[in-house]
Amino acid sequence: MGDGVGYLLKDQVVDAADFVAALRHVLGGGTVVDPQVIRQLIGRRRDPLASLSPREHEVLALIAEGHSNAAIARRLAVADATVGKHVRSIVTKLDLPQTDDTHHRRVLAVLTYLRGRPTDPGPTRPS
Question: Could you tell me if 112 and 94 are in contact, meaning their C-beta atoms sit under 8 angstroms apart?
Fold first, then answer.
């Protein structure tokens, strides 16, 4: 007997002959994974913003609004250096390429932020 691996969804197994064939394949050392599971795994997208802390989200939102680090520091009542640390953490967590131009990385961070935000459907109208 081999070291096969199998994962089938019980509600997807409709043909006993297919199930027995999959079982034999696994017993022979093969791998069987339900196609629906594979589609779901491949279809998942990692949200690049998920790794940011709430404060980093707040800083990134203010950057997206066009505020400088100094303006963000005043608004959040923190030191300029603290905002700089948040910005460095944001671009690191978003895995943005290191460049000599920090403004370029800020623009890339804002684009990532804007792509990750749900779109605003606007005001709803009564039917």
Answer: yes
List of E strands, 1-127: 5-7, 31-33
Percent of the chain predicted with pLDDT > 90: 36
Tell me, yes or no, whether 25 and 81 share the same domain: no
Residue 9 has pLDDT above 70, yes or no: yes
Contact by Cβ (8 Å): 51, 98: no
- List of residues 6+ apart from 53 with CB closer than 8 A: 89
Confidence at residue 121, expressed as pLDDT on a 0 to 100 scale = 45
Query: What pLDDT score does 118 carry?
Result: 54
Is 126 contained in some domain? no
Q: Which of 64, 82, 65 is nearest to 73 (CA)?
A: 82
